[in-house]
User: Fold this.
Amino acid sequence: MNDTVRADTVGVVGLGNMGGAIARSLLRGGIKISAWDASPAALDRLVSDGAAAARSLDDLAAGCQVIMIVVVTDEQVKEVAGQVLTVAAPGTCLVIHSTVRPTTVIELAQLAETRGCAVVDAGCGGGAELAEQGRLTLFIGGSDDEVERCLPLFEAVSEYRFHVGPPGAGVAAKLVNNLMSIGTYAVNLEAMQLGAAYGLTEDVITTFVTPRSSGNSRGLRTWGRHDRARRERRAASVDWSERMGKDLFEAAVAAGLRGVTLPLTAAAAQMLPMKLRQRDREVDALGPFVPGPRCSVCDYELAAPFRAAGVHPECGQVPTPAVRGGAA
Amino acid sequence: MVAEREVVGIAGVGDMGSAIAETLLRDGWSVLAYDIAPERLDRVVAAGARAAAGLADLAAGAEVLAVVVDGQDQLEAVVDQLVPAAAPGTSVIVHTTVRPAVVVQLAAIAAARGVHVIDAAVGGGSEKARIGAMTLMIGGDETAVESCGPYFEALGEHLFRLGPPGAGMAAKLVNNVLGIASYAMLLEAMQLAAAYGMNEDVVTSLVTQGWGDSRHARAWGRQDRRRRERVDADAQAYTRMSRDLRNAIGAANVRDVQMPLTEAAARLLPALLQARDHEPDRWLPGAAAPRCEVCGIELAAPYRAAGVHPECVSAVGGERARAAGAGRDHANTDVDVRSAE
Assistant:
């Protein structure tokens, strides 16, 4: 079955930063691509990279058994998927890479089922740069059979793959991951303020939070990373202070759509832009920004206890291979 | 100067106090203990401690006094009775988590009688205390802290000398916010995951690979077990975390720092914890996660095959020997932040 997919032409709809990068990784993996984008320029570029241009979305939908959708918004995904499903042959699988609400995936999966088709969501961790290198982390939701069928394609674009549950679970997993890292960062900011009020420096704090202390986290071990990243983005005239709050807000909304309220997440979403601007002012007030030393493996900041070694403890270890969680 | 292995008096031998007593006894110390609950006192006597008749008796019989009671009210009442009965030069070591200002005030009162109050806030819970692998965050007069060195070394794997009286508690409160408020966040994240059909083993597998990685995620299940162990006997099982957070918020507020997100966590935690415990499948037999062979704490899914957390691997050997009662065979991490500055 895997060989069938590789031999077939895979459809890719949406050739922006992410879609173009994913398509090129597939091409490098020897996979034939039929591509479609509303922008002729984006389509031309991918054709020059080796893809075939579909004459229309309908043309693409009728000719491909697996169709990857990498458009931007929920509305665009619904529109493209709805159109594809009107002409796709039974047995076609739609793979949604866009970061949409999990309920959008679930609704489309139900619609697809009525046409004898299937939907798999594969939320992307890592951004266009890693996608270009075929090193994304994919959070995958879908039936075991459909995920198995798409595996060769996923392998071509990703380094880590987590099959976490049924359709919708993939993008939900991405939101869960965001919530754990960003929500914890918001909490850590307040803890650092408390420490500062009592003369405890951030180097001291990241030291006494020992490896098995319940407050220890990747965020603390790389403390300083977000300060630098926001500063770099500010230098490029990008205000990132709203972005983290928006990611948390999306997590709260996704839960709300299933009847679960996340009041702490909602509070953090609301507070974060203000907290980040305050933090930036405090860091600015310390004088010229001096970037901290970075890990020789992952290249992210080293908190105080790891500077002598030059590497995070988790970076000196062999990474756990991609985990297949199985559908719930 | 307190010679090694002299008499330590312990006021309060509940979960943490008895763990400290056991570790000291195993290390060859003489322990004098007092507790208002006779059954708790009997338990440490059975383990080899002597029982004091009261707090004054305790204070008169030991040169190092450890206070391991529950909350500010008990702490103040106990120290009030210990100080007048203690000989000048005695050190009173406060392990109870309170706001830094409480320690500062007790230290000032005790200093008038020549008694030192040292705060040695505890990280790691009684599991760590029982094997002498605590994290101790210490504030106090430098000479007094130095003279209690053997006591701290008997109990702690990681010792942080952080500054004047109160500095240890400030560090502990920071630790609490980092650990507890982030746990509240993870509880909500797990609710989101459950709403989309993800089981928690899958969640811990994926988050530990990336930016969501945390000790909570790696040891997921630990807090569930600890509540389950306590919930019937402990009226504060659902409110203790919020109380700890409110201590931190109070300490921040008196220094003009606001902690609105921590306040939200303190307000929401009791309901979050109860909602979690009332999920029908939570306590099915067999739901318990296997534990780490080094730290004894739950292993999240990605570490079960190895039987050990990645952060515990480097400690294999040393701690296993200590857990077996073989005494110290590894160096303490002893960080004196003051001298480093």
User: Anything to note?
Assistant: Residues 316-331 of chain B have pLDDT under 50 and may be disordered. Residues 167-195 of chain B form the longest helix (29 residues). DSSP finds 17 helices and nine strands in chain B. Chain B touches chain A through 81 residues (CB under 8 Å).
